[in-house]
């Protein structure tokens, strides 16, 4: 089989199925904004985008949130080493999180390792409240270290991409969510 890193972007479209259309994603984003308004009415918030996958959700949600918000970002990547999975911090938030209401935004809760580590970081930095919002939660049957406070869509236990999520670096910009076909 060809090295997946060298496949053309079109290969991934041809070998995947739409699991949520653009219209369904739009509805999910509206529901997420509504849920955040209910939880955060009257508060000022710090949106914390988990790069790079959280960028799409952050951009979409920012347009929908009528709350005094500031924006920061971090990059904490999964590293699958020989002795299990770990997180490598490439970029910590710049804002002082002490006393802040932080809303962490990410594209997917898969095993939950990344989000659990980001929440731990925010709490350790003294955040007053930490809420998590993910566009997708993977239905993989695992006992995850945390549940997200706000979830847009539940995706099947397949590799998904689009709306911030990549497949070998491609298609984070797709306005729909697709799942790779299992060979
Ligand atoms: O729930 P988990 O099993 O921890 O996986 C979810 C994380 O994995 C992806 O990030 P990745 O490290 O691939 O970086 P990316 O955001 O640049 O795609 C995704 O954006 C989530 O942050
Ligand atoms: O299914 C996925 N798709 C994209 N990125 C991911 N990061 C963890 N799981 C996934």
UniProtKB/TrEMBL annotation:
PANTHER family: HYPOXANTHINE PHOSPHORIBOSYLTRANSFERASE, HYPOXANTHINE-GUANINE PHOSPHORIBOSYLTRANSFERASE
Signal peptide: none
EC number: 2.4.2.8
One term of GO molecular function: glycosyltransferase activity
Keywords: Glycosyltransferase, Transferase
Protein name: Hypoxanthine-guanine phosphoribosyltransferase
Catalytic activity, reaction form: GMP + diphosphate = guanine + 5-phospho-alpha-D-ribose 1-diphosphate; IMP + diphosphate = hypoxanthine + 5-phospho-alpha-D-ribose 1-diphosphate
Organism placement in taxonomy: Bacteria, Pseudomonadati, Pseudomonadota, Betaproteobacteria, Nitrosomonadales
Sequence ranges assigned to domain Phosphoribosyltransferase in this UniProt record: 25-166
CDD domains per record: PRTases_typeI (cd06223)
Species for this entry: Methylophilus flavus
